[in-house]
Design a protein that fits this description.
By secondary structure, this protein is mainly beta. Helix content is about 5%, strand content about 35%. The chain has one domain.
């Protein structure tokens, strides 16, 4: 019998993913109070079993950036989790989501 090592975790280049999903280059984000209408979800990469993933989000009309789960999206908001069509933001990784973003439906 030959022992086979399990494959290691796959590293994801979030900026490359963002560009594949149509996001522009990263730019500084203005610090203003959170409002759901300030955020536009443009893409998702959900890890079904791992609980990891990333979301491509535009903040306040700025070019979209890729954020891994747990990353700070804006002052006082982190990406808590992602699903097939949604991303949830809140003040910390744990706890209740204060903002739910949904991918726009393509016609």
């Amino acid at each position: 019998m030959v022992a086979v090592a399990a494959p290691g975790p796959v590293a994801v280049d979030l900026q490359a993913l963002a560009q594949v999903l149509g996001a522009g280059p990263a730019s500084p984000v203005a610090q203003t109070p959170a409002a759901p209408s300030r955020y536009t979800l443009q893409g998702l990469l959900a890890g079904r079993d791992s609980g990891r993933g990333a979301a491509v989000i535009a903040v306040n009309g700025q070019p979209a950036r890729a954020f891994p789960v747990g990353a700070q999206v804006d002052e006082g908001l982190v990406l808590q989790s992602v699903g097939v069509q949604q991303a949830w933001l809140g003040p910390s990784r744990q706890g209740d989501a204060t903002v739910t973003l949904e991918l726009p439906i393509k016609k």
